Amino acid sequence: MTQHTADNLAGLTPGVLLLREEMRGGKMKSLGNLEFGTFDIELALGHDAIWLIIRRENRGGAALRAAFLPAGCFDAKLLRPGPHDAACIRVNSALGTHRIVVELHRDTVPLLRVRTALTPAAPLLVSFIPRDLYPLDSRDDPAGAEGKVEAAQRGFNSGAVYFRLTAPPFGSVLYFQNLTALNPYFRATGTKPDGAVGGLWPELGYLVPTPPQRGIPPAASLPPGEETLLSDALLTFHEDISGDEQDMARRYLVMLGATLRHLGAPRCDLHDWPGRAERTLHDLAAAPQATLSAYGHRYVHPYTAAEYPDSMVQLSILAAIRDYEAWSQRSFAIGAELAAGLGKFYDTRLKTLRRYLPNVGKDKDRNAVDSWYLYHPLSKLGRLALDGDRPAFRLFRRSLDFAIKAARHFDYRWPIQYDIRNFRVLQEARDDAGRGQTDVGGIYAYVMLQAHELTGDAVYIDEARAAIEAAKGMRFELNYQANLTAWGAAACMRLWRITAEEQFLRQSYVYLASFFHNCAVWESEIGHARHYRNFLGVSALHDAPYMALYECFDSFEAFERYLKDSGPDLDPAARLLVSEYCRHALDRAWYYYPDALPPEAVSTCQREGNGHVDRTLSFPVEDLYIDGQQAGQVGQEIYGAGAALVFASRCFHHVEGAPFRLFCDHFLLASERASERSFSFQLGGGEGREARASFLKIGRAALPSFTVKSASGDPIPVHERSAKRESYLVPAGGNLIVNW
Length: 740
What we know:
The protein has 740 residues and is an alpha+beta fold. The chain folds into 3 domains: 14-241; 273-650, CATH 1.50.10.10; 655-739, no CATH class. Strands 5-6-7-8-15-12-11-10 form an 8-stranded antiparallel beta sheet. Helix 7 (371-386) packs antiparallel against helix 8 (390-409). The mean pLDDT is 96.
């Protein structure tokens, strides 16, 4: 990222020039002042806007345009604020009436919230509205402020821009636009917030999406006499301006966590993941579209009746089946059949797993391998080996030397794709900056740590360390594929546990910051998105237009390991974000299954070669779109079918001898059966948040009467009750005691 100074600015927009002129000449009319810790906030009326001028004495500031008034205003009045507001401003103009509400939250991380709504005087066709945030130097000059934008909105992910104002040393700012609250505006105008928050220094913030002005102008208007929210901006401030990658990442997580606490979130429904898992296993075993036979063994199609078997698909499904078998204490023939064919992926000459079987069709380059494809199957083999699977251990160990050879050849900085025979690069980079698969080092490090756990050989610790060290300096460009980034965070956490070197804990925050930068911390109601949830969903790739279930549940697994390895030293904001991601994944993931969506929300046309969508099969579609496009355009991914098995085995808990099963939407870090009719468990969620704990009826016996208490003995009331389940909202980071 470039440090922006007056000497290297690309130019000044009319908005910057006008603001500078008004600030220089003292031409704004003051409407009042607010004290906010070390900040002073002036409410002011300018030539064509209402402003909040936020200053720190001798350390610069920022100007936030709260309302744009291109024709000026008739009057602006400071009204009596509501009980939770710091200020309320009413502005009358030719456009109608703007209402601006200001909130000040004097928490550990100061947060300013400004909501602006407009009641149009006539049907209003919205045209250009400039961005709304300008850093200021100590003379209130936006052109003189020096700083750096570290991260801005990507596609339809969170509407946020994170920047540092370094000269004068104002601090760091996270500007966050609550896009959830703006759904009525998007519907009324037919617009979408694609990359709406960002900007070019020093004009930053939110660029209100407006209909394109070409040919015949669009006719979608804001209704007269009806109030529509135009902006819901939350700004968090931090005094630190350090450019250290690890400090900057942790600071971003702290500020995003503070923002999340002030946002409303969609409800999380309880879904029957065990039932979904059973249907999935049936379809894997019985549906001819799911598998094929080769070399006397059974292999999984990546998509419905389409694509060649590959090792990543085979091992992802098998690992999930093994988890479900252990949870259900039953064996499934399909698991044994898939395990029996793994050896055919092994190349005895190269001594490594291949992506494809030897008989792959000529339309595929069997020697081309995406960098992550070498290591992800090994991570699943390692999982199986750690669970006591001896054939998996042998195959895993036989592949380790080649895995290390490839990593060292590329100096732990992998390209997009290479020839597995000689490491000749087939595609070097994903962009003009020369970046390859930047987060492969994370999954590689995790595989090396599995190898260390299985063998005790310290060379694998050195390899993990080298991979994590090589990824340093990527900042918010670290994320290539979401689940790989999540496994990188888990590898850092494990490496910290093994070495006690704090740098690895801190480096885990860099992986998390990059992951959550690609996350949608808002709930879209645009188009078909109204039929499903996307809150805290993450883009499959750094630039992908959709969320994908495989990356979703694989990240869920990685974060389970991250939290269970973390302990009390984990930053509370990181714990909050990770646990909330996992909680919402349990709900959001349900809507990838085509039978959970209305038919019109699922595309009838899939990517060429990716088969078709069959609504009768319990396999998920690959793609859900935050902007409301039809789901399943890429295809129905059988390789993502392990999601149901993973969610069931992680969040539904057996209680031996009891006529119920416990569901919890947070991970149980520990549990203890205190007596025949009582047990206790510990959750690892965010401080001050709530978790859902539900007791689900199994068998014919009625649910017993429950008493749920906190560790201090305080009773927790029932939240919901029916004949089949009883639910409680409990502290997400607490210890609970249950009696029945």
